[in-house]
Task: structure prediction
Amino acid sequence: MIGGRGAHSPGSPLNVPPVLASNFVLGSDRAYTRNDATPTWEAFEEVLGGLEHGVAVAFGSGMAAAAAIFDLLPAGADVVLSDDCYQAVVGLAAAGQEQGRWSVTRLAPDDTKEWLGAAVHADLLWLESPSNPLLHVGDLPAILSQPRKSGAIAVIDNTFATPLGQQPLELGADLVLHSATKYLGGHSDLMLGAAVAREDELARRLRERRLLAGAIPGALETYLAVRGMRTLHLRLERATATAHELANRLQRHAAVGTVRYPGLSTHPTHSTARRFMRNYGAMISFDVYGDADRADAICESLQIIRHATSLGSVETTIERRAAIPGQEHLPPTLLRLSVGCENVDDLWSDLDSALVRSSPKERH
Ligand SMILES: *Cc1c(COP(=O)(O)O)cnc(C)c1O
Result:
């Protein structure tokens, strides 16, 4: 298989079709799907592994992949986690800590000195960069080149950046985590995850966890994700350019306070991002003047932009993150915008009208 395509022989389909099979006629190395995978998962793993320069192991969701990684830890492990981090990963780490399986320390993604110190003692370093939703960028080249405790695993959650934005395995990470539900799938129509390992041995252990926990992907999901990844570069090219432009315009808008986008020179970790990221991504977080009700009113009055959670799709979506249970520590008027592939001026006129409608006083 090359690039997740089918056999290059006359009459073969160009793409590996969704193989809906639980079992196979005995006599080859493929007998039962949960143990032996299907050609459709393998196509997805091949494409993602190629993009990340590692060995990809597909899971039923990003969280299934995350749980499999935590399951690799020895009893009493020392876990170090970003403090601005995907909420369910924080929940997973906290649940294991409560059960006495490991202890958790939280560090700011941009506190490089602390991460360098942690590398020496941690069994698991888990860094999400850019972080969710404040979009802090960690100094991955510095942190990942710091020698680690023997057997330690350094994981970068690369969901926001995608393999086209940064290549953590090349920078020294042991594993990359993806929620393929987001940019890789890219069309808001599937849930899927993956862990990508730099070394075969770690991939083998993750496949074993997948088999034992039954955390397998679906045939249709992996098929759709491969189809989505065929246009990842095009979608991202458009979405990142549009995001940069919208971030610039938002920064000048009278109804908007702080704009967080790693591509803005005013962003606290812009200079770090500039050193190693290939693009600044398509996620923007910004504060609007007023209170939570006004921020909600802005989300509700948008016409093109959808008021919805999640991210990474061709459709632009917006969400007030502090409205989510467990996220009350965030600024109440912070809106997180996942920029999609629509026309930039259509998006801007939608945003501008909603901001002006909801905040006439600041405007005049
Ligand atoms: C969505 C997400 C996850 C979890 O992935 P699921 O596919 O929802 O299980 C993990 N990390 C980040 C950064 C995410 O955005």
